[in-house]
Structure formats: structure tokens, C-alpha cells
Design goal:
By secondary structure, the protein is an alpha/beta fold. The chain has 10 helices and 12 strands. The radius of gyration is 17 Å and the shape is globular. It holds the Pfam family AP_endonuc_2. Keywords: Isomerase.
Length: 253
């Protein structure tokens, strides 16, 4: 079975990060995470200081997120940041879509942004939630978007929980739609029951052995653990997810 480097999305511990930036990053590294999706440091900490801190903790910036439901972000500044921090080459966004025409219009803009990112050696990624699996003219908005964007310019960061929340199998979607197009995979689980609340990886109903097999087939490079909300202390949730991935034999040493 293929193993993966495991990163973390610190949105899970966003309150702790605001309260104690350095201490929170240290705790994530102590759990065992080697990668992190991160942006510019808070006021009072320079990128050079952030870079030194991350290096001391053994944390590599895998990617950065450019914002939510907007294409009006400074792509050059984000790429400059990742260059300075010696981070990964992936930049992700999420959008909302009103109708098919809106999907196609935003897809065209993503192609333009992604082409510029490619010129600088970066890859533009789309991170889904569940609403991208609403249908317009008999087809998922997500499918319209993928068909309207050039794989050379726009890839995916599939989110397993949100796909499953929309009753779409993340493993099947990786196999049928995202071959060679999903370098990063957001992994989170789902509780059984009507509420379908977030769960730690390996504690819910998703089949991560099958998801991992599909991820290997699709060319996924990193798995990124995120849990939007937790019934436990968020650090405990991230620890449980990491340990379960290790027990599943999916953790790359």
C-alpha cells in the first residue's frame, strides 16, 4: 500500500493559533505532522522568523489558501510568500456558484490565474465543499468546472468529508474525475447518523483504505488532515487522526 506524507490544515486549531501562534505550531509538530497549509504570519512575526520557526519544528509549508469565494486576491504576493518561506507550489481557493454560467465564467478566470501561476512554477487548486455537487443542466457544478478548466492550469484539492456529505464517493471521484489532477487531498471523516457531523480520520464511516488506494491511483502527493469542527479538544482530534493514519499503514516516514 502506498504511504503518504501527512500535513495539517491549522483551521482546525484556529482559535489556539490566534492566541499562541508559536506554541500552536509547536504542538502540531509534536503530534508528528511534517507539512502544514499556511499563509503569512501574524503581525509582529516576519516571514523570515516564521521560516526559521518552521524549520526548527520540522514543518514544511505544503500550500497556501488564497481566500474564500473570491478571485480578487493578490496571487503574486502569495507566490512571493511561498518562494520566501521555501514552501510548496500549490495555492488553493474555494468558490460558490449561482448557476452554470457563473461556473463557466469563474472557470475562465481560474484558467487565467492558473496560467500565470504555472509561469512561476505554481499549481492553482480548487478545494470543494458540498455545494459544488449541486446540479446545473443535469451535471454537477464541480464537473462543469473541471471540464471548463485546463488541467495544466487548474487542479483539485478534493475534500473527502464534503464530497461524502454531498453523497459523492470521494474514492470514486478520485478514480473517475481526478486522475493526475489532485496533488493534495483534504482528509476528514464523518460520524454515522443523521447529523453527519465531522469525525476524526478513522473514527467515522468513510473507508480510508479505499480512499488511499484511489489517491495513489490518482497521483495524490500529500494528505492534509483538517477537521472543521470537533466534539473533542481540536488538538486531541488531530492527534487521533494522525495516530489512526499511522495504524492504517498510510503514514510515510
Amino acid at each position: 500500500m502506498k504511504t503518504f506524507p501527512i500535513g495539517v490544515q491549522p483551521y482546525t486549531v484556529r482559535e489556539a493559533l490566534r492566541a499562541d501562534y508559536t506554541g500552536t505550531l509547536r504542538r502540531l509538530a509534536e503530534i508528528g505532522y511534517k507539512g502544514i497549509e499556511l499563509g503569512l504570519p501574524p503581525e509582529g512575526i516576519t516571514v523570515a522568523e516564521q521560516k526559521t520557526l518552521l524549520k526548527s519544528l520540522g514543518l514544511h509549508v505544503v500550500s497556501a489558501h488564497a481566500g474564500f469565494d473570491t478571485l480578487s486576491f493578490d496571487a503574486e504576493a502569495i507566490m512571493d510568500y511561498l518562494d520566501e518561506v521555501e514552501g510548496g507550489r500549490h495555492i488553493a481557493i474555494s468558490l460558490k456558484f449561482a448557476d452554470k454560467e457563473d461556473v463557466l465564467r469563474k472557470a475562465a478566470e481560474c484558467n487565467r490565474i492558473g496560467a500565470r501561476m504555472k509561469e512561476r512554477g505554481f499549481k492553482f487548486l480548487y478545494h470543494n465543499h458540498d455545494w459544488e455537487f449541486m446540479t446545473f443542466d443535469g451535471k454537477y457544478a464541480m464537473d462543469w468546472f473541471l471540464e471548463a478548466t485546463d488541467p495544466a492550469f487548474v487542479g483539485m484539492e478534493l475534500d473527502t468529508y464534503w464530497a461524502a456529505k454531498a453523497d459523492v464517493s470521494p474514492a470514486d471521484y478520485l478514480r473517475t474525475r481526478l486522475q493526475g489532477r489532485c496533488p493534495l487531498l483534504h482528509i476528514k471523516d464523518m460520524e454515522a447518523g443523521e447529523q453527519r457531523f465531522f469525525a476524526e480520520v478513522g473514527e467515522g464511516v468513510l473507508d480510508f483504505k479505499d480512499i488511499a488506494a484511489a489517491a495513489a491511483e490518482a497521483g495524490v502527493e500529500w494528505m492534509i488532515v483538517e477537521q472543521d469542527e470537533s466534539r473533542r479538544d481540536p488538538f486531541d482530534s488531530l492527534t487521533i487522526s494522525y495516530r489512526n493514519l499511522e495504524a492504517m499503514g498510510l503514514l510515510k516516514r
